[in-house]
Predict the structure.
Amino acid sequence: MLREKLRVRIVVALFIVTTFVSAPLSALGQKASPVAPNRAQVEAVVREAYDKFRSDTSGKNADYIPYLAQVDSKLFGVAVVTTDNQVFTLGDIKYSFSIQSISKVYTLAMAMEEIGADKVFDRVGSEPTGRAFNSVFAVADMPSHTGNPFVNAGAIATTSLISGKNADEKWNKILDFYGRVAGEKLTLIDEVYKSEAATNTGNKALSMLLAKYERIYADPFESVDIYTKQCSVGVNVAQLARMGATLANNGKNPATGEQVIKAEDVPYILSTMTMAGLYDGSGGWAWHVGLPAKSGVGGGIVAVVPGKGAIAVFSPRLDEAGNSVKAQKVIEYVARKLDLNLFSPRSVGLKGE
Ligand code: GLN
């Protein structure tokens, strides 16, 4: 009888501990960041943002890739993954959308791993173009021609740096790498690939233009094809958040513990995301949000909070620059409420009072 009572007490105590004592957002291994908001705060703010913007219908699906035009524009999912692999998700979290331009982040990481960051910087550069992501003018005008690894021209050039005996070997290496960053195997959405491959004359033109300037480093059309495949990889919002959390965690996947991206390369990747992650919306994003992020025309955006975690949002309606409208609003709301803006001393706990 006494024992029974003791057992009940232990169970009740455990329940109280697990329910009310939230783990900090960035318990890096055993060490918790002193400035990280706790789990309960994060959940409450993300939920608030989700409810606030749920019925927002501004923007429209990308339609230059026919498949994307018919994706249900009401789909809406949010995921947070922390550097200690706590996961919090809301909404349409099972749906696999195409990663699109967010893939460029991870091909950049691979290229740096293969030939070193300095060579990638020489061959691609990292200057914002101030133009649309698929701009031909930027290629013609910019001294580097490639611009940076996140506009289409620079991204195709970056993909062309990946080594392999043939196109298949290069592509399989890329797909495998993305899977290791996400912590689980990822696959190509074949219909997206076919739809994009049938309509990507603009990207082929960019690639040939780069060839004219000797700024593409493998066969121009093969490189566009591999690039088109990498853009057609499917991810759900939690997988995307974990891909961001791997960057937040210095290149080490928080779920598998694998050091997938070299820690020394992470600052190069995050600085490029800050300057060019949302194309010609990047300046406004840095002003309002202050977090390295990357968008894709599939409707995903992932934002990285170094040392703490990442937030990914999926919602297909885009603004003029090609960035998901709802994803931007949710991330901005969460970043403000939780003081995540990296340019603000508040992000490291200086509240100013
Ligand atoms: N695959 C798309 C393209 O090449 C990627 C662009 C994007 O997501 N912004 O146009």
Observations:
- The first helix runs from residue 2 to 20.
- The two ends are 55 Å apart (CA to CA).
- Strands lie at 27-28, 31-32, 77-82, 87-91, 97-98, 187-188, 233-235, 293-295, 300-305, 309-314.
